Amino acid sequence: MKPSFRRFKKRMFRSQTIRFITLLLIILFVACKPETPDYEKRFTYSYMEEIANPPDDFLILFNNQPVGQKIAKITFNSDAVWHLERIGDLRGTVTIKKNLNYHNLNMSDTLGLYGGFQYEVVLSNVPYGESQDVYVGFKKLNSDFGSFEPKF
Q: Of 29, 35, 61, 143, which is most buried with the most CB atoms under 10 A?
């Protein structure tokens, strides 16, 4: 073979290899769709709705908060143990209120909540610049309410 033909063949091989790798990377990036976050798969209420007898797994959305308090009202149909969690912007304060009693929710907590009482989930926001959505998640647990502590 002539040297010029070898160079041509070598260049063609390099060119095809680069095209193949580029095509493979494009396919991988297009095919790799990020998984939907867990909180987007759960049933979601707005904080403006009065929530009565919610499902065993749900979220309350406090969307794009300005300064001030936003209050969600919720009533459970029976006594149960619930796992509560904060999702999203963690700069505000989330408080669970029943009558005159308050319980601050940091990141997550497990509480025995009574049925038939109206609870308020209160998000207090202070000015931090641009605010983001805050979710408060509730998951009912299969724990015995009678022997569980703390109850609220």
A: 61
Phi and psi torsions of 147, nearest 5°:
-100, 0
The DSSP-derived string for the chain is --HHHHHHHHHHHHHHHHHHHHHHHHHHHHH-PPPPPHHHHSEEEETTSEEES--SEEEEEE-S--SEEEEEEEE-SS-EEEEEEEEE--SSEEEEEETTEEEEESSEEEEEE-TTSEEEEEEEE---SS---EEEEEEEE---TTT-S-B-
Closest C-alpha to 136, from 121, 116, 152 = 121
CA distance linking residue 116 with residue 12, whole number of Å: 76
Which residues of the chain fall below pLDDT 50?
A: 36
pLDDT score recorded for residue 110: 96
| pLDDT tens digits, one per residue of 77-96 | 999 999 999 988 777 889 99
pLDDT at res. 125: 74
